[in-house]
Amino acid sequence: MKTILLNLRAFIVLLCLTSATITNGQVQPVGTVIGNQTVINVPISQYGQQSQALIYYPDDYFLPENANKKYPLFIFLHGAGEGSGNNISIVNNTSLPQLIAQGMKPFGIDSVTGEKIKFIVVSPHAANTNYSYSFPHVKWILADIKQKYRVDETCMWVGGLSAGGRGAWSMPREEQAVSSQLAGIVTISALGYEGGSDANFNAAFRNGLACFNICGALDAHVATARNYNATILGLIGANNPKKYWYYEVPGADHNGNAWNPPFQMANRFFNPTKNLWDLMVNIRRGGTSQPPPASTLTANAGNNQTVTAPQTINLAGTYNSSNPILGFKWTMESGPNTPTFGASTSQNTTVSGLQVGTYVFKFTVTNILGLSVSSNVSVTVNPVAIQLPVVTVGGGTTITLPTSTTSLTGSATTPAGTTISSYAWTKVSGPAATIVSPASANTSITGLTTAGTYVFRLTVTNNTTGSSYKDVTVVVNSAAVQLPVVT
C-alpha cells in the first residue's frame, strides 16, 4: 500500500511537471553546453516523463585511455527559485552549478593514494514547478545516470539547497533499497523534509549513510538544521565512524552566502586540511571510509590566580574549535563558600563574594555537534595582611584637687590603602574615673576626685584589623593644705 501511495503521489506531481518538461518543452536543445555543463534528458518517473538536466563531465572523461575509468557522482537539486520558468540556464544562478560555470572543477584527494578523484555532477531542472525534485524523481534520475555514464557506484551523493535540501533529506526517508546505494547526502539551508518514514531515516543513518548538514547561521530555517543535527547525533552515537558533519556558515542568511561556500575548493569547513570534496571522495558505500581527524575542540580556563580578600576576580576562558560553538559554562568545583558569577554562561565572567581559601572553577565549552570539553583554574584567596596604625596621644598632665577633670587628645596615621575603623579609650590603672567619649579620638575625663596616678590608653584599629595603642598618664594631687593666718 505504501508503494502504491508513493507512486500515486509521484504520478500526481509528474502530471504537473509534464506540461513543463514535455508539452511546453525546454528552450535548450540536448547537447547544448551552458556554463561548462551539457544539457541532457533524464527520466523523473516510471511513466516516461523526462526533465532536462545539466551534466558536468570531468575534463578527462572522454580521453581514450580513460574509457573504462569510473567517476564519483554528485546529483545537485536546485532551490525553488531555479524551478521557475523552463530555461535550464537558470540552474546556473547559484551554488554548485554556478561555481562550475565559473570554472571550478570538482575533485577530491584520495587519502590513501593521493590520487585526484574527479566528480561527475548532474543538476536536474524542475522546470515551471517553483520548487525542486525529491526522492520520487531522483530515484529514476539516479538509475538512469548509473546506466548511461561511467559512475563509481561506491561514491554517489545527492545534495541540494533550500527546497533541494528538502529533496536531499527525502532520500534516507524513502526506500532503503535506493538510499543504501548512496555514500551520503549534502543538505544546505533545507526546508525540512517530506514523505517517507522515520524508521527508514533512522535505519539509513544507523547503516552508515554519511551527511553534511549545513545552514547559514542567520537563516530562518537554522532551527530545522539544528533539529536534524540533534536527531542524527542521537542515532549514530559518539563512537560510530565519522560520517556526519554539521556546520553553520557565520553571518550567512538564506542565500548564496550559505549555498556557495561549502562547495568551494578552498574552504575547509569540516576539517583543517580537507574540503568537502576531499571528504566525500573518501567515504565509500560498501567500501572503506577514510575518516578525517576528530573535530578539534579544546578549552583553557586561564592561569591560576592568587588574590587578597575581599576582591572580585575576572575569569577569562579561551578555546579552539573546528566547529561553531553552542555555548559556554562556568561552574565551581570546590571552595569554602558559594560565590556569585557575573555571567556564568559567557566566555568571560566575574566572580564575587569570595572568602579566604582555595577555589577551583571549571570552564566548559560545547560545540554545535554536542561535544564538550572542560578546563579548570585554581584561585587562592589570602586574608588581608594586617598593617598597624601609629598612635599619638596628648593631654598627659598633673592636676590638683579640687580640679577633677582633664582632656585627652589622640590621633593616628595608618599605612597607605588602609583606613581607621575605630578609636577606643580605656583606663588601664588608677582610681575610678569617667571617660566621657571613649569611642572618639579626643575625650574628656571626669570624676578624678581621688588623688593618685591614672593611666589611660587609646587603641586605634584599621580596616585590616590591625590595632595599636598608646598610654597617657594623669596625676591627681591632693588639695594643697592651706594654713590659717594667725594674728
- According to CATH, the homologous superfamily of the largest domain is Alpha/Beta hydrolase fold, catalytic domain
* Overall pLDDT metric: 88
Global structural class: alpha/beta
What are the segments in which pLDDT stays under 50 over at least 5 consecutive residues?
1-24, 287-293
Radius of gyration: 42 Å
Q: Which percent bin holds the helix content?
A: 10-25%
- Cα distance spanning the termini: 151 Å
Q: What portion of the residues fall into strands of 2 or more residues?
A: 35-45%
Number of helices: 9
What's the domain count? Answer: 3
CATH topology annotation of the largest domain: Rossmann fold
CATH top level of the largest domain? Alpha Beta
Outline: rod-shaped
Tell how many strands the DSSP assignment holds: 28
What would you say this structure looks like, in words?
With 487 residues, the protein is an alpha/beta fold. The protein folds into 3 domains: 2-281, Rossmann fold, CATH 3.40.50.1820; 297-382, Sandwich (Immunoglobulin-like), CATH 2.60.40; 390-477, Immunoglobulins (Immunoglobulin-like), CATH 2.60.40. 19% of the residues lie in helices and 36% in strands. It has 9 helices and 28 strands. A 9-stranded mixed β-sheet has the order 1-2-3-7-4-8-9-10-11, with helices on both faces. A 4-stranded mixed β-sheet has the order 13-20-19-16, with no helix packed on it. It is rod-shaped and about 160 Å long. The relative contact order is 0.08.
Topology:
Elements: H1 2-23, E1 33-34, E2 37-43, E3 50-56, E4 71-77, H2 95-101, E5 107-109, E6 116-118, E7 120-124, H3 135-148, E8 151-161, H4 163-173, H5 176-179, E9 184-188, H6 198-206, E10 210-216, H7 222-236, E11 244-249, H8 256-259, H9 276-281, E12 297-300, E13 305-308, E14 313-316, E15 318-321, E16 325-334, E17 340-341, E18 348-352, E19 357-367, E20 372-382, E21 390-394, E22 397-400, E23 406-413, E24 420-429, E25 434-435, E26 443-446, E27 452-462, E28 467-477
Parallel strand pairs: 4-7, 4-8, 8-9, 9-10, 10-11, 13-20, 22-28
Antiparallel strand pairs: 1-2, 2-3, 3-7, 5-6, 12-15, 14-18, 16-19, 17-18, 19-20, 21-23, 23-26, 24-27, 25-26, 27-28
